[in-house]
Design a protein that fits this description.
three-stranded mixed beta sheet; binds iron/sulfur cluster; globular; alpha/beta; seven-stranded parallel beta sheet; TIM Barrel
Amino acid sequence: MYNLPGFEPRLVDKAYLENLGVTVEPSEETLKALESGSDVFRRRYAEGLLIPRQRYGLAELDPAAVTPEIHNYTGRCPALTWEINPVRGCTVGCQYCLVSDGVHEQELLAYENYHLYVRRLLDEQNGPGSPNERHYYYFSPKTEAFQEATLYTGIAHRILREFIDHFRRCPESRARLFIASKAGARHLECKDGGESILDLFARMKDRMQFNTSVSIMPDAFRDILEPYAAPLDERLAAVKLCREAGIPANSALVQPIITPWLTPEHTGSFFDALHGAGIINYKPEFLTACVENLAMLGQYLGWFDKDLERKLYDDYLMPSNEAHRKQRGRIAPDKEKSRGYLKSMMEYTGKLGMSVSICYWVRKQLGISEDIIPLINSNGFQCLGYQSKLFADV
Ligand code: SF4
């Protein structure tokens, strides 16, 4: 984003929106947020702080002192899922980051002994003498599971070995590993102690799933939005590697969906590629972002096509949509438009025989009935794309 010919961050204010031909009239509060977001964007652009420094510190944590986190942003999640987050921050640098609202100024810290906390959590929840309820363990909602900081240090490998050892010690365990990742094939082939991530997956393939996380946009835009993430074709190559090894990897998190890119061409080629890689289910999620972050994301879109930027603001900034917010005030696109976009997406993917699972918050906000998207769909997926059949034997 620093070398886009002719690109210079601008002040997104009332005059800017009018010049762009935006038809909605944002409230004063929203305009203020756009202006302060523009100022922050310009400062970070000038100071080179838009993407994370590709370095990280190493630390040790006290496994007994960690407070386990349940993955439940909306208070409505149907599955009790424990979070696994071995790095504070993330080297991937997504400009819309769902965790940091696109902020990547903090120093990254990787916890070398994080696996000891995972061991404690597994023992407490699903070990001998524990309640042993059905639990997903989500690796990783707050950072990328397979990034330099977790791969080159062996942190990711040690975490996976903890699960393998747990399942060996506790064959009756009702723990299941849910991985959502932007990793490519080369990340899964990264070795530690002679074992690759894929090798470790294969040793617990009936108790885990690998869900690629990717969205509908041109590669050039993805390179700006997710600067250090694997390209689409590499992520799908990772899916194929898993499937060839018999590891469940046939559901994708399709997020964040940037509504102006939802043209028939982009939607069609994207889902054809997923379908071609063996993906049979997807969890669609529209971009949610604080208004400050929208002032930056919109301008990136505008570099490609000013009309796309106008469309983005027209989908988000109307006063009637101001209360349509997920965690931390992240605004979602207009509900009526969202229903329309989802309907046309499902019409296309329905022809490919793909099923859809949806976040419970989105379901409630958009009033999507279980007739349209069942809580657990025909392929056994629910919510984020949790595969309920992973518990078939317990
Ligand atoms: S991979 Fe996830 S945690 Fe990392 S920057 Fe992107 S959205 Fe944030």
